[in-house]
Write a structure and sequence with these properties.
The structure is a single chain. The chain has 559 residues and is an alpha/beta fold. 33% of the residues lie in helices and 25% in strands. It is built from 18 helices and 27 strands.
Length: 559
């Protein structure tokens, strides 16, 4: 029989699991019993249902990924797990974990990632749990995990040898415990092949007048882009930074205009017709055309508009679209025209899961979801999916160009401009103030709540306030209530200002300021975004007293 040891421990403060798991500096995770305590709290929360079950395990390859997985193996064995499916070399993208859970009908999955945060000995690490549907853990489960971390007195760990994760093989141990090392890409790729017309996409990539480039930012997307896009005919030289590195090569693996600046420069030089970047765990994406940036909000709206026509998965009819509250209302206009159900939910992909599961139970899946934070996906899995989004865009390009002659390519910018002419343009921007002192950030948010009293009908600059509130969400499927999800100032012309504290950083606080203004006048569509939003930005900075509270005279990142 397997030898299991019960190790005495004590609660460790601050192990609260957020919307995307537990994220801290690597050095915090390396502290004595830190990871072990959290894992035992997870396993306690899953008992007794966990006994004899299968879990999927993998991560984005960041520093300490390999060490953490060996600890997970030994503790899972000690806590009654029957089998672990682990990606080769410990590598699995976040959407791939979701696909594998669903395809193999596993009980759940453990993902080691801090997503778009930097990696390395002095940077970030993270861990999160996904449930049987393949989606992020519910708040009920994350609350349970936290409660256990506050009272834990021991953890269980099996005395097992290190498992070689470099070889695809089945490793069997006493007591029937098994670790199966699997190909990281195969199941996920097969899932995508049930969604898209790969032949049509290959035809687009093979056109002489179409050039594309993908940048994995040294994250986990690399092995997937090599296999999937290589099979579609994309040459290796157009797959940039496609080997996962423990520190992402010193890059910040966040696919936006600041951190993916090399790709942005390449695209705005006019050398390529289509470009995309992915984050550390490959669930986020940025889409670029030749000298053209597609905002995540517009990307969601365009995909929703074309999905039924050019993506086989949706050929039976798109049922619903969903967006996070801060995401622009561009997709709302598509939903209205196409008579689709629209869901507006708090930030965090788990909030889309209940809607997806609802339509799946009705045997009418086909839901598309998106967040302004570069996350897009559908109900083929229960995570946002960067590669899915890029295949969706390539499907659209293949569709609109199926009858065009060489040299007459309909471009990304053509597609988006046509969309604006049909629906109008939602000018949109996000200002991120990163690593702000937490106390100062909380004071700013409290000030904003107080400032909302008796604002309706009053003018803020050239804007008249139609509503001012703190967003609260009641889930219509499970009746759960999520409070304090963002402070909103809504104006009578449809413009919005939203403030929200982000939970995805490992230190300090990140204040996110979202700005949106709708424009129906076609002659104004080609304004620079910051010019179009200038008056709104001024109002937002004044009402928040941003500089006074944070000491910052400019955001860290503008998207």
């Amino acid at each position: 029989l397997m030898e299991v040891e019960s190790v005495t421990t004590a609660p460790i403060a601050g192990q609260k699991t957020g919307t995307s798991g537990l994220r801290k500096r690597v050095k915090v995770f390396q502290e004595k019993n830190y990871l072990n305590n959290w894992l035992q709290s997870l396993f306690n929360s899953l008992q007794p249902d966990l006994e004899g079950k299968t879990l999927v395990v993998g991560g984005d390859g960041r520093y300490w990924n390999d060490v953490a997985i060996q600890i997970i193996i030994k503790m899972a064995a000690a806590n009654g797990v029957q089998k672990l499916l682990i990606g080769k070399n410990g590598i699995l993208s976040t959407p791939a974990v979701s696909a594998i859970i669903r395809s193999t009908k596993s009980f759940g999955g453990i993902i080691l990632t801090a997503s778009h945060n930097p990696g390395g000995p002095d940077d970030d690490f993270g861990i999160k749990y996904n449930n049987t549907s393949g989606g992020p853990a519910s708040e009920v489960l994350t609350d349970s995990i936290f409660k256990f971390t506050e009272t834990l007195t021991e953890y269980k760990i099996a005395k097992l040898p290190e498992v070689d994760l470099s070889v695809v093989a089945e490793n069997k141990f006493p007591g029937g415990f098994c670790v199966q090392v699997i190909d990281s890409v195969e199941i996920y790729e097969n899932t995508l092949r049930t969604v898209f017309d790969f032949d049509a996409i290959a035809g687009l990539i093979g056109r002489k007048d179409f050039k594309m480039v993908l940048d994995s930012l040294n994250g986990v997307a690399g092995p997937y882009t090599k296999k999937i896009f290589g099979s579609l005919g994309l040459e290796d030289e157009h797959l940039l930074r496609s080997s996962p590195l423990e520190n992402f090569g010193g890059l910040h693996p966040d696919p936006n205009l600041v951190y993916a600046k090399d790709l942005v420069a390449e695209m705005f030089s006019g050398n390529f017709d289509f470009g995309a970047a992915f984050d550390g765990d490959a669930d986020r994406n940025m889409v670029l055309g030749k000298k053209f940036f597609v905002t995540p909000s517009d990307s969601l709206a365009v995909i929703a508009d074309y999905a039924e026509q050019c993506i086989p998965y949706f050929s039976s009819g798109l049922q619903a679209v969903a967006r996070s509250m801060p995401t622009s209302a561009a997709v709302d206009r598509v939903a209205k025209k196409k008579n689709l159900t629209l869901y507006e939910v708090p930030t965090g992909w788990k909030f889309f899961g209940n809607a997806m599961d609802h339509y799946e139970k009705l045997k009418t899946p086909n839901v598309i979801c998106g967040e302004e934070s570069f996350g897009t996906g559908s109900d083929h899995v229960r995570e946002k999916d960067g590669i899915w989004a890029i295949l969706a865009w390539l499907s659209i390009l293949a569709f609109v160009n199926k009858d065009t002659k060489e040299g007459e390519l309909v471009s990304v910018s053509d597609i988006v401009n046509k969309h604006w002419k049909t629906y109008g343009r939602n000018f949109y921007s996000r200002y991120d103030y990163e690593q702000v002192d937490s106390d100062k950030a909380n004071q700013l948010m409290a000030h904003l709540v107080q400032s909302q009293t008796d604002l309706v009908g009053k003018s803020l600059g050239p804007f008249v306030v139609a509503a001012a509130d703190e967003f609260e969400y009641t889930d219509q499927f499970d009746s759960s209530v999520s409070s304090h999800q963002g402070i909103r100032f809504l104006f009578d012309d449809g413009s919005r200002i939203i403030f929200r504290l982000s939970g995805t950083g490992s230190t300090g606080a990140t204040i996110r300021l979202y700005l949106e203004q709708y424009e129906a006048d076609e002659s104004k569509f080609n304004q620079e975004t910051q010019d179009a939003l200038r008056d709104l930005v001024k109002v937002a900075l004044e009402i928040s007293k941003m500089q006074e509270f944070t000491g910052r005279d400019a955001p860290t990142v503008i998207t």
